[in-house]
Amino acid sequence: MSDLELHYPRPDIAVLTLNRPAKLNALSYELVCDLHTTLDQIRANNDCRVVVLTGAGRGFCSGLDLTDPNPNKASEGIDFPRSGMRWQELIAELTAKLQRLRQPVIAAVNGVAYGGGLGIAAACDIRVAAESARFCTQFIKLGLGGCDIGVSYTLPRIVGAGPAFDLILTARTIDAQEALRIGLVSRISADGTVVDDALQIAETLCSYGKFGVESTKQVLWANLEAPSLEAALQVENRSQILASTSGEMREASEAFRRRRRS
Questions:
Q1: 69 and 142, same domain (yes or no)
Q2: Cα gap 72→81, rounded to integer Å
Q3: Number of folded domains in the chain?
Q4: I need a surface site. Which of 87, 111, 159, 243 has the fewest CB within 10 A?
C-alpha cells in the first residue's frame, strides 16, 4: 500500500491523499519524497486544474514522524549540519512547491493538522476543516524553534501577526471553530463530508476559465509581497490583459448573453 494516493474523480480534479492512517499521516522520508514527485507530476498535467489534498483515516497530518529512520543519522557528527540541512530543506520545500503549483490546492483537513501538517495546510490556497479537525504548530514543544516549514511566513498572512505569534509561541491546540473565527479555515464541514465539500469548491473553480484561475492564484501570492498598491495594480493589469486574449473571456461573455436572452 502506497503512503500517498492520487486519483482523479474527473480529469481536471486531482485528489491527493496522505495514506499513513495508523500514524495519523505523519511525514516519513518516503512520504515526503513521494509528495515531491507527485506534485511535480500534477504540475505537468495540463488537464488537471484543481487539487484536493487530504489525509486518510482520522488525521490530516500529525507532522514529522519521529519514529521514522532519519536518512541523515549515519552522517551525524562533523557532517551532520550539512546533511541535516538537506533533509530540513526537502521537507520545507513542500510548502514552496504547493505555492508554486499552477493549480489551486484545497486542503480538506479531516482531522489533526499538527506541526508540518499545519504548515502544509497553511501553504494551500483554500482550507476546509471537518468539525473534529484540530490545529497546532507543535514545533516548540519538541525543543525546536517554533518556526518551521514556512509557518512564520504563511500564518501571519492568513490570520494576522497577533494570532500567528500566539499560535506559534504557545503551540496551543485550536479546534475548527476557532480556526474559522481567526480565518485559518474558510469553511467547516460535518465529519465525513469535508472531501465532498472540497470537491464542490473544486468543481466551481473548474467552471471558470483555465487561465483566469491559474493567473488569479499567481497574482494573489505575488501581491502578498507587493510594495505598494501601484505595484499590485501593475501585476493585476498585465494578468487581465493576458486573460482577455485567451478566448475564454469571449466564451464566458457569450454564455452570459445567452442566459440573459433566455
A1: yes
A2: 10
A3: 2
A4: 87
Q: Which of 61-70, 113-122, 225-234 has the lowest mean pLDDT?
A: 61-70
Instruction: Look up the CATH number of the domain holding residue 60.
Output: 3.90.226.10
8 A C-beta contact, residue 118 and residue 151: yes
Based on the fold, state whether residues 153 and 197 are members of the same structural domain.
Answer: yes
Given a contact cutoff of 8 angstroms between Cβ atoms, the answer to whether 9 and 195 are in contact is no
pTM exceeds 0.70 for this model: yes
First to last CA, the chain: 52
pLDDT band at 26 (very low <50, low <70, confident <90, very high): very high
Q: Which domain holds residue 223?
A: 210-261
- Region of 143 (left: φ > 0; alpha: ψ -120 to 50; beta: rest) is left
